[in-house]
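Training component of the fellowship. As part of building independent skills, the fellow (R.M.) carried out the full modelling exercise for a liganded target. The chosen ligand was 5-O-phosphono-beta-D-ribofuranosylamine. The inputs are recorded below so that the supervisory panel can assess the work.
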Amino acid sequence: MVKRRTCVFISGKGSNLNNLISHSRKSNFPIKICLVISDNKKAKGIIYAKKYKIPYIFINTNLTNYENKIILNLKKYKISFICLAGYMKIISGKLINIYKKKIINIHPSLLPKFKGLNTFSRILKNKEVKTGCTVHYVNEKLDSGNIITQKFFYIKSGNNEQTLKENTQKLEYKAFPEAVIKIFRYN
Ligand code: GRF
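Fellow's submitted model of the complex:
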């Protein structure tokens, strides 16, 4: 199997990055993680890039030409697929155009409900019965691209933001790799 050369974008803890790396080390998983990009020098997730000797770069998104730096590095590492895993910056139209239908994101809600930030507090406030996670293609509108996979659980009366987050992340570790397999199954 020819594995797609993939870049994972992160900003923080990187537990989804870690999970994707573990899956990508299996011979029949369709992607190989060849680059990690972080917009945050203090992102804890960088430890996983170091641990598995995957090249990683920091991008200072305060610089005006930062998108060009991203694009140059994606070319340098011959990246053909991108996973956003907790990346907190909006992806520009330029990058989306170059990687049409090749960028996916994981979001901690059942989209189209609760796009954007602070999902768990809004879910509780809205007295939702269930919640979960969504893996979707990235287009120019925030958290609005076509949905690839969703997983859900029922909310219990004792749930708070922390437990919702923990339950959601457990599902994310299943949903993200499943979505990757689904995308490349027939390609
Ligand atoms: C995940 O919960 C994801 O849904 C959201 O950001 C979080 C990233 O977590 N987009 P981690 O950095 O992968 O641990």
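The panel noted the following from the submitted structure. The beta strands are 4-10, 31-38, 56-58, 81-84, 103-107, 130-137, 147-154. The pocket of 5-O-phosphono-beta-D-ribofuranosylamine is lined by residues 10, 12-17, 45, 85-86, 106-108, 133, 169, 172 (CB under 6 Å).
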